[in-house]
Design a protein that fits this description.
Layout: E1 2-3, E2 8-10, E3 16-18, E4 22-27, H1 36-39, E5 43-49, H2 57-65, E6 76-81, H3 87-106, H4 119-139
Antiparallel strand pairs: 1-2, 2-3, 4-5, 5-6
Helix pairs in contact: 2-3
């Protein structure tokens, strides 16, 4: 995932995330973990300044428009990773989550094209409705005339 020559991560064919734009710091993890949790700073606090990044403006706008609690009012995305016991795995997890967010912001949904139902499908629909109506008529009580 990380390219050696440019120190960046490939988001798509044209978009790369430069690792120097990511600020990573180690913090103590919360929750249970025994004696280890009080001694080792295994959790990772990742900060990514969207406005100062080298991402295309379209992706920046999509990221800033998201209603995400991890996004500050200054346009900084904060990701906290503490799922694993080791700092390396938490760092990889935080970067992977950031890449997923950027890939979602980079995705352009296909525009929907309005279509009409075919004549054959319309005929099948009407025939099915007529058959249901006939079945209902057959369920009625027979009266003598």
């Amino acid at each position: 995932m990380i390219t050696d020559t440019t120190n960046s991560i490939k988001i798509s064919n044209t978009v790369y995330l430069v690792l120097d734009e990511i600020e990573i710091s180690a913090i103590r993890a919360q929750g249970s973990g025994g004696q280890n949790v009080n001694k080792v700073s295994s959790a990772i606090h990742l900060r990514f300044d969207i406005l100062a990044s080298s991402l295309p403006q379209r992706i920046k706008d999509n990221l800033l428009q998201r209603s995400d609690s991890r996004l500050t009012s200054d346009g900084v995305l904060v990701i906290k990773a503490q799922q694993f016991r080791t700092q390396e795995k938490n760092k990889a997890d935080a970067i992977e989550r950031l890449v997923e967010l950027i890939q979602k912001a980079n995705h352009i949904p296909k525009t929907r094209k309005a279509t009409k139902p075919t004549k054959a499908s319309q005929k099948r629909r009407v025939d099915a409705k007529k058959q249901v109506g006939k079945n209902k008529i057959l369920r009625k009580k027979v009266t003598d005339y």
